[in-house]
Amino acid sequence: MPTLLDQLSGGHPSTIGRAREVAQQVLSARERLDELFDGIAEDNPTIRHRAIRAVAEVSAVQPDWLAPYKEDFLEHMMAMDHWIVRANVCKILPRIPNLSAAERRRMFRWAESLLNDSSSVVKACALDCLSRLSLAPGFPRERKQAAAQVQHSMRLGDTPALRARARLLERLFR
Predict the structure, then answer these.
(1) Domain co-membership, 62 together with 112
(2) Are residues 1 and 75 in the same domain?
(3) Please, which residues have CB within 8 angstroms of residue 5's CB and are 6 or more apart in sequence?
(4) Is the domain of 2 the same as that of 60?
(5) How far apart are CA 128 and CA 46, in angstroms?
(6) Is the pLDDT of residue 115 over 90?
(7) Is the domain of 47 the same as that of 19?
(8) How confident is the model at residue 82 (pLDDT cuts 50, 70, 90)?
(9) CA–CA gap between residue 105 and residue 97 (Å, rounded)
(10) Per residue in 22-44, pLDDT tens?
(11) 131, 144 in Cβ contact below 8 A?
(12) pTM here?
């Protein structure tokens, strides 16, 4: 039987390949999550990009499974430079359980810095990330900043997709 990483290899790095199928396999066998995280550290960009996409899919269903990997996100994944990785990390960060106030603020600042990214996909995911991070109790300043960014993006977002995402996010602040 091929490993998860073997299943993620091949083809163009920006396609999802078998990432959804691999995510389903991990959801059926939690112990395979380590193998998937190993893929994020791969030198092969195809495996790395598909592994982070699969982790994002797993985290949407089982966010508590991310707890043991919180330090990996804070120390390594937020520093990765490819747009696919940045966009998916933005999707994952608000799902990580038991964040301290300092960790949440660090993630918020990182997401906020991505609003100037060259990728419109990353900008939209970053806006979503900082909005969701700001909703935790005890973050009124960040909530105000996120709401202002959403309003700004609704009016002046670079692309129709970013303006549409901002309109959806605006509902979080009503």
Answers:
(1) no
(2) yes
(3) 35, 38, 39, 42, 47, 51
(4) yes
(5) 25
(6) yes
(7) yes
(8) confident
(9) 14
(10) 999 999 999 999 999 999 989 99
(11) no
(12) 0.92
Other C-beta atoms lying within 10 Å of the C-beta of residue 163 = 15
**86, 56 Cβ separation under 8 angstroms:** no
Q: Residue 94 belongs to what domain range?
A: 1-98
For position 80, what pLDDT does the model report? 82
* CA 130/CA 128 separation, integer angstroms: 6
Residues 6+ apart with CB under 8 A from 80: 40, 86, 89
Kindly state whether residues 111 and 164 are assigned to the same domain.
yes
Instruction: Please report which confidence band the pLDDT of residue 75 belongs to, taking 50, 70 and 90 as the band edges.
Output: confident
Which token pair is 27?
Answer: 């959801």
| Pair 2, 80 in one domain | yes
Same structural domain for residues 77 and 126? no
Residue 122 pLDDT exceeds 80: yes
Residue type, 43: D
